[in-house]
Amino acid sequence: MQSLASWLTDWNALFGQREWPVYCTADEVNIYFVRPNLFNSVNLFHFLCLFLHRCCPWSRCCGMGDFRPRTVWLGHPEKREQRYPRNVINNQKYNFFTFLPGVLFNQFKYFFNLYFLLLACSQFVNELRLGALYTYWVPLGIVLIITMIREAVEEIRCYLRDKEVNSQIYSKLSTRGTVKVKSSGIQVGDLIIVEKRQMHLRLTSVAHSSPPLPGSCFLRTDQLDGETDWKLRLPVACTQRLPTAADLLQIRSYVYAEEPNIDIHNFIGTFTREDGDPPVNESLSIENTLWASTVIASGTVVGVVIYTGKELRSVMNTSNPKHKVGLFDLEVNCLTKILFGALVVVSLVMVALQHFAGRWYLQIFRFLLLFSNIVPISLRVNLDMGKMVFSWMIRKDSKIPGTVVRASTIPEQLGRISYLLTDKTGTLTQNEMVFRRLHLGTVAYGMDSMDEVQSHVFSAYTQPTHDLPASRAPAATKVRKTISSRVHEAVKAIALVHNVTPVYEANGVTDQAEAEQHYEDTCRVYQAASPDEVSLVQWTESVGLTLVGRDQSSMQLRTPSGQILNFTILQMFPFTYESKRMGIIVRDESTGEITFYMKGADVVMAGIVQYNDWLEEECGNMAREGLRVLVVSKKSLTEEQYQDFEARYVQAKLSVHDRSLKVATVIESLEMEMELLCLTGVEDQLQADVRPTLEILRNAGIKVWMLTGDKLETATCTAKNAHLVTRNQDIHIFRPVSAAGDPLFLLHAYEVHPSSTGHSQFPDCVDPRASILWDGGNDVSMIQEADCGVGVEGKEGKQASLAADFSVTQFKHLGRLLMVHGRNSYKRSAALSQFVIHRSLCISTMQAVFSSVFYFASVPLYQGFLIIGYSTIYTMFPVFSLVLDKDVKSEVAMLYPELYKDLLKGRPLSFKTFLIWVLISIYQGSIIMYGALLLFESEFVHIVAISFTSLILTELLMVALTIQTWHWLMIVAELLSLACYIASLVFLHEFIDVYFITTVSFLWKVTVITLVSCLPLYILKYLRRRFSPPNYSKLTS
Predict the structure, then answer these.
(1) How many other CB atoms are there within 10 angstroms of residue 538's CB atom?
(2) Which of 54-68, 521-535, 1020-1034 is predicted least confidently?
(3) d(CA 526, CA 269)
(4) 384 Cβ neighbours under 8 A, 6+ residues apart
(5) Is 912 helix (H, G, I), strand (E, B) or coil?
(6) Within 13 Å and on the Cβ side, how many CA atoms surround 794?
(7) Partners of residue 170 on adjacent β-strands
(8) Alpha-carbon span 362 to 125, nearest angstrom
(9) 779 is in an annotated binding site
(10) What is the mean pLDDT of the chain?
(11) Buried-most residue among 123, 306, 400, 696 (CB within 10 A)?
(12) Separation of alpha carbons 274 and 270, rounded Å
């Protein structure tokens, strides 16, 4: 139940998190790959689940009580043991009956809106009425109508979107064959066919799959966890052997799934087929699931729906993004409170000067009404409209194409950034990995010596010298042979220990029958969960050992001579962020040897490999060069050792309770005394113009912090390459803190952790003028918690950019976003807000002078249309045209980022500038009113004509005085407002003597009063620019 804006934010927050489970789990649609006839985008079901949770607070009535494990029978939703949430979304805030009261409540729950409502309602009391009712109700009504129109448009959009999503058609297997069903009609237990590019709902395990690989499918999860590379998903083995997908309805089988939880990277369940002989019982893991917010990349899949509605993990991980209020809005609210205090004080002073005579308490209320203009009702409307204009300017800037504004309420915050916390991979860097270094301990190979590696690999497969007895080879040959053998073993290990899958495409269409059969190099594309993996496999191909085929049980390598090496994949241990390593057990079909290969981060591999004296030192050296280091090792296993391990491993995987712990314990029994083969180093290159952009930010006074999970040496090197720190700058390293008495303990308490705990710690540890710049789906929580979140559309998908307040396509665009648009938005909003306040204080000062002269009477100076027209058609357009003003050109703002530094002090809107505008308002209001009283003739209506005309002209001239760079729309606004006032005089005979305003006496009196009120200010402005010019004035001359 959210507006369109928050719905779009939820769309982003919905997509899952890699490190911060607070935001997204992909279990929305748990699909058992019953048969891969269907690969589609899992996003739809995810949304359905999220919105169901939002729209139905009465969860127990919908069967959404305590979360429990469930047994789901394939194709028989009627056998369910408990009630599950419906697959329906409702993203609307209101319905037909609650729209009007809901909008009114949301408007008047704030003090100042309620204040203006009470003012308008007070006019129904005769003792408090000061004039026509429309004087107070029309301005309030205009504000409410604009708000209702905006809310109505958002509600209609939400309704149409909800209707479209709920009406999506899917194919379902049933006893009547394949039938069409709306997404809102899908239930837990249904067998749904998910097709390529179709929006995927809520399936959980893969029961059956089709090409590209028999019994498997590829999944894109960029909108779930921020990773754009494809991931391999596997079906339930026994269902894959069924002749057709329809046979799934003929077997007695069910899935036992764990209770819904927030972990998107793990799943525990079992698949049981009761009518088998003997009965089949298979374990299910994350590899058998399709989560919502993922897309089937190729093939088709049949899956069984396991979780829906509130039970979806993405829903459980999604929290409502906080409503962000910029520092500028807080400052304006503070000034508004001061104005309200002034309103009360002035009213009390007026009554006190009457010596509290008569019913003085009624007089207090009348003066509160009389001086209500001190608190301008149009301030909020003008600022909101200004924010919309600033957002539009950002989107239309051709020099930062693709920039999107999703939080149109805080564009001024871009002009107040003091700290920038930025990600490294994908934000400062391109997230495109290039292999740079192979280190064997005694010898290292860089990019300039890869031909030596290639020759060693070539000789290992073409020369039979390694089969000869050592005694028949000379000593020198034996040494060369040893180096060659080590290089060959390292390259072979790198070519085997990964999760990369070669995909063959012909003319853009996957064609296994031809391209894969001949292993066509031109048709082969590598897909993996990490660009590091792909870069390593591409490197082994460049040195002669090519990965040409892979499925869930085998792998094929091609040697430089064209020979195909076949390996059977016995076990696969994927990389996790907890273990920081991955492993694979393979059997060489030509020799029967069983080998356990493993690679991972040096911090975990150091305790796994055999003792050596070079690992730590060389890892540090490579990291200091900016390389990401992986340690590769192996361990040979006998058949008996492997059979013992497999028995224990299968038993652990079938466990329902503490499965992860038991599986990890079994795997760790192999991870001992492994042979260290090599170190690999890959480089993630910087994005374009990162260095000059960081230089601009530094000169603008913005402190940039780079947050990364890389090794300290790698992060330091990247920081120096990006000129985040200078080459000779000292870098302070904080040692680990364990004791509460340590002086650094308090500092560590304010760390920003990129994990699930960082979500709650972040708001308290960063300056309120901090910005977050991130690119990954796992970075959503940091972005949403920041005061100003900026997302980069990078290799890790669009989730971060979708969840951000602002999104850019490249890091270098951040400079113009802040230096030009942020600076202009803040300065223009400051000028606009202060001028709206000045406009209100002017007329309030005139009212105070008028009441004082006439014995403190609570009689309004202006009534009816005059008071309404003053803040609308007579002055609205010139005042609002200030959103087009600028002090310097955008090129100058980019060339001199030091101009941005001045904004960090908050000088455009401060108590000092506020006080100056208050004094100007009092001066001009007093001059106009006293001048009119001094020069008026016999009729009171002449006072109104002289003072009001002088007031309008003064406001128009003050706008001209404030403008620094004229825009043609500003001139149009000035002339249009003046024309509207002159034209309306014909219809204002009730308030103004039409004949009098055509006389020379009227004209000279108005001219004199206007000159006296404005000319001194023009002179002061000239003197100030002459003797104390602002910083930018020299740049504009």
Answers:
(1) 16
(2) 54-68
(3) 30
(4) 409
(5) helix
(6) 31
(7) 181
(8) 11
(9) yes
(10) 78
(11) 306
(12) 13
Rounded distance, CA 536 to CA 494, Å? 7
Tell me whether residue 289 is annotated as binding: no
Rounded Cα distance between 352 and 373, Å, is 21
Q: Pairing mode, if any, of strands 177-182 and 404-405? A: unpaired
Going 159 to 162 to 164 to 169, the CA torsion angle's sign is negative
What distance in Å separates the CA atoms of residue 925 and residue 849, rounded to the nearest whole number? 8
List Cα–Cα distances, 825 to 376, 407, 412, 416, 822, in angstroms: 21, 14, 5, 10, 5
533: annotated binding-site residue?
Answer: yes
Q: Tens digits of per-residue pLDDT, 412-425?
A: 989 988 888 887 77
Which residues are registered as beta bridge partners of 565? 557
CB count in 10 Å sphere of residue 905: 9
Report how far residue 675's alpha carbon sits from residue 155's, in angstroms, rounded to the nearest whole number.
63
Q: Sketch the domain layout of the chain as residue ranges.
A: 1-63+88-165, 186-317, 374-400+819-1034, 432-461+483-504+525-684
Rounded to whole angstroms, the Cα distance separating 612 from 441 reads 9
| 532 annotated ligand-binding residue | no
Q: Is 333 annotated as a binding residue?
A: no
Model confidence, pTM: 0.73
Instruction: Indicate the residue type of 748.
Output: H
778 is in an annotated binding site: yes
- Residue keyed to tokens 């108005």: 1006
Nearest to 218 by CA among 204, 229, 196, 233: 233
Cα–Cα dist 936/417, whole Å? 53
Question: Annotated binding residue at 27?
Answer: no
Strands across the sheet with 627-637, in order? Answer: 444-445, 429-439, 675-686, 627-637, 594-600, 581-588, 564-573, 554-558, 546-550
Residue 699 known to bind ligand = no
3-class secondary-structure state, position 615: helix
Place of tokens 């899958």: 501
> Helix, strand, coil shares of the chain as percentages rounded to 5?
50, 20, 35
448 annotated to bind ligand:
no
Q: Do 480 and 514 contact (CB within 8 A), yes or no?
A: no
Contact 958, 1016 (CB under 8 A): no
For the chain, give the number of residues.
1037
- The whole-angstrom separation of Cα 766 and Cα 787 is 9
CA 719 to chain centroid, in Å, comes to 24
- Catalytic residue numbers read 423
pLDDT tens-digit readout, 693-748: 999 998 998 888 887 766 676 777 778 778 887 767 777 777 665 555 555 554 55
Best-predicted range by mean pLDDT (32-36, 544-548, 982-986): 544-548
Q: Is 885 annotated as a binding residue?
A: no
Task: Take residue 1031 and report the two structure tokens written for it.
Answer: 């910083």
What sign does the dihedral 720-726-727-730 (CA atoms) show? negative
Distance (Å) of CA 783 to CA 577, 661, 792: 21, 32, 11
Q: Rounded distance, CA 582 to CA 601, Å?
A: 10
User: CA dihedral defined by 262, 264, 266, 272, rounded to 10 degrees?
Assistant: 90
> In angstroms, rounded to a whole number, what is the distance separating the alpha carbons of residues 146 and 851?
34
Q: Is the pLDDT of residue 768 over 70?
A: no
Burial class (CB in 10 A: 0-12, 13-18, 19+), 585: buried
Q: How far apart, in whole angstroms, are the C-alpha atoms of residue 253 and residue 72?
A: 9
For residue 494, pLDDT beyond 90: yes
CB 498 within 8 A of CB 528: yes
Distance (Å, whole) CA 406 – CA 404: 6
- Confidence label for 1002 from pLDDT (cuts 50, 70 and 90): confident
User: Under a CB-based contact definition with an 8 Å cutoff, are residues 161 and 283 in contact?
Assistant: no
Q: Residue 597: count other Cβ atoms within 10 Å of its Cβ.
A: 22
Is 875 annotated among the ligand-binding residues? no
775 assigned to a ligand binding site: yes
CATH topology of domain 432-461+483-504+525-684: Calcium-transporting ATPase, cytoplasmic domain N (3.40.1110)
